[in-house]
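Following up on my earlier thread - several people asked me to post the actual chain instead of describing it. Fair enough. Here it is, all 386 residues.
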Amino acid sequence: MKQKVKYTIIFLCIIFTNLLDAQNEELNHPKLTIQLKNDSNLLFENKKIQTENNTNESRLEIGAYLSSYYSFYTEDNQADFVKHATMAARNQQFGLNMAMISMKYQSQKFRSNINLHYGDIAESTWPQKFNMIQEANAGVELFKNIWLDAGIFRSHIGLESTQPRENITSSMSLANVYEPYFFSGAKLTYVIKPNLNIQIQSFNSFNSIIETNKNKLFGSSIVFAPNQYLTLTYNFITGDETIDSVRLKHQRYYHNCYLNYQKNKWTAGAELNYGRQSNSKLVAENNFKTATMNSALIVLKHQTLNKLAFYERTEWFSDKDEILSLGSNMGTYTWGVTAGIEYKPFKSMALSFESRQLNSEKANILYNGNYSNQRIEFIFCLDAWF
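Reply from S.P.:
Thanks for posting it. Predicted structure:
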């Protein structure tokens, strides 16, 4: 672990030095501003159109983030993490969702983004070999308003983020648990207008940094913000994750739509998903057809008082043939309801307490030695960032 930390510090120093050298070479951008990334409201931050730097001033933002929790689940401890583990992944324990340091560089023609994290989210959802790298990518403006970015990215699929501070709730819906958390590859973005972006992508795999076969994953996105309060996003992604030695292929087509809205005291989000995968529905012995799945969620938050807010989420997940949720044994459906309260004593600190109930068609949760189709959750979370 000490060696990991040592190499991480060296890595950051090298990147920081290179950014400064690159800045000195940009004759049109003689000034570099270094600042703390101290935004107070980061809800849906990774799901909006990002405002680019339109001045002659280049900017380097440095930030840090810590998310800790205590959780209780009506589930017997069978392993280190509970079923559907992402946030608050340990049962009846205090835990660390993540400790993260980040750097973001932006000039008129070049940009780069690095997030390094450690904790239960990194351990439970990221590949072991790369679990300290949440994000590491760089981009260049090839032509006016056309950007090419490459590296490791946080997922653009799904309304909810793998940084808890960017979500309304302290848990993650099943719809987003079984969507990709990260991608490794390249993106080509065309900024048609300040409020309209289109993008095409090529990645190694649906949820793996290293390629799993000879195929690539391809996708496209449209992000539209009709006004300053609302953002609409449509994502499409397709690929085949079948290993090369298997002859029967399983092409996957995944449609993901979501919106986020923030105005006055209200914050809201909604998501719809539909997926198809060939040769994945068994209809007779050695006879397969295309399988389908669908999921949805709605989440609302009301800032009732200056420092106190209440929130609620309703979710639905249906993946009978386990296209995405392999081995979950939930049956035809699972639905859930979440309710919580958030207190922000300071602009960059939040304490939340929430309760959640999940109900599935099939009994798939082991509790008190018996299988149940229901799970109750209680999560206390403390987040702080600068």
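The helical segments are 2-25, 120-125, 174-177. That should answer part of your original question.
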